[in-house]
Specification:
This protein is α+β, with helices and mostly antiparallel strands. It has a single domain, classed as PNP-oxidase-like (Split barrel-like), CATH 3.20.180.10. It is 45% helix and 22% strand. It contains three helices and three strands. A three-stranded antiparallel β-sheet has the order 1-2-3. Strand 2 and strand 3 form a beta hairpin. Helix 1 packs across helix 2 and helix 2 packs across helix 3. This is DUF2470 domain-containing protein. InterPro entries: DUF2470, Haem_oxidase_HugZ-like_sf. It comes from Gordonia lacunae. It holds the Pfam family DUF2470.
């Protein structure tokens, strides 16, 4: 984050964004796919790449049979720093797991 004193949305330093995206896309691709299939209402998704995020939401590039679509999903809370992003992503993943469990039952 570059400015803790602003009243606007948090802005994340490029190195923080790059690190979060690399971690999500290298280590949690299947988690992103589940998130987009369930919370993003894209059950036809074949892959999902976290493309960015800000204080309000995460953005994914989602492969579907017709190409790639952008899915933007709001966090369950505003995020202000890297640790907040982690907490928000985990909450999003758990919500996706819960929804997927309801869908498959």
């Amino acid at each position: 984050m570059t400015d803790d004193n602003s009243s606007g949305p948090a802005q994340f330093a490029p190195d923080v964004v790059a690190a979060v995206l690399a971690h999500m896309n290298d280590d949690h691709a299947e988690d992103s796919l589940l998130i987009c299939r369930t919370l993003g209402d894209r059950p036809d998704a074949t892959s999902a790449v976290m493309a960015g995020f800000d204080a309000e939401a995460a953005t994914f590039d989602v492969s579907v049979p017709d190409g790639v679509v952008v899915v933007r999903l709001a966090w369950d809370r505003p995020v202000r720093d890297r640790s907040d992003v982690r907490v928000a992503v985990v909450a999003m993943f758990r919500a996706a797991q819960e929804q997927a469990g309801r869908i498959t039952r």
